[in-house]
Design brief:
Elements lengths: L38 E4 L5 E4 L17
Antiparallel strand pairs: 1-2
Length: 68
């Protein structure tokens, strides 16, 4: 088996000496979460549909679950 070697153009980082290390900042205050309420309805064919609207982002996510 051949020995592993790093590519010649890869930059190698070493940690700062213990005396030069800086502690990370303290965590900030908790942020209040605004979770939208789901709206549930049934289609004419009996299919249950649950929708959660959030108009902040142009995003659509769908999950289809089929139960016998």
């Amino acid at each position: 088996m051949a020995a592993l070697t790093a590519p010649a153009d890869i930059q190698i980082f070493t940690p700062a000496p213990a005396g030069e290390r800086v502690l990370p900042p303290a965590p900030g205050a908790p942020v209040a979460a605004a979770i939208p309420s789901p709206v549930e309805t049934r289609l004419a064919n009996g299919m249950r549909v649950i929708v959660v609207e959030k108009h902040d982002l142009p995003l659509i996510s769908a999950t289809v679950v089929v139960t016998p």
